[in-house]
Design a protein that fits this description.
It is a single chain. By secondary structure, this protein is an all-beta fold. It contains no helices and 6 strands. The strands form 2 sheets. Strands 3-2-5-6 form a 4-stranded antiparallel β-sheet, with no helix packed on it. Strands 1-4 form a two-stranded antiparallel sheet.
Length: 71
């Protein structure tokens, strides 16, 4: 489902999110947030245009990538 202003990214309680990178469809990094160290983080749309973005989440034991749509 498309998000309007923000979306929440969460993991299981055993693994913490260390940082989050957001990339546009051209592969340009448009947002970076580090030193999160929690099981969830709220990703605000802020200055991002409506569209599709790839979110790379850096965890304790690896990296996960997902797609976010802002409308």
């Amino acid at each position: 489902n498309p998000a309007c202003e923000r979306t929440t990214i969460s993991t299981n309680k055993k693994e913490l999110i260390r940082s989050v990178s957001v990339f546009d469809v051209m592969g340009k990094q448009v947002h970076f947030q580090d030193q999160i160290d929690q099981a969830s983080v709220v990703l605000d749309r802020n200055q991002l245009d409506a569209g599709v973005y790839l979110v790379r989440v850096y965890l304790d034991r690896g990296v996960a990538t997902s797609r976010v749509i802002f409308r």
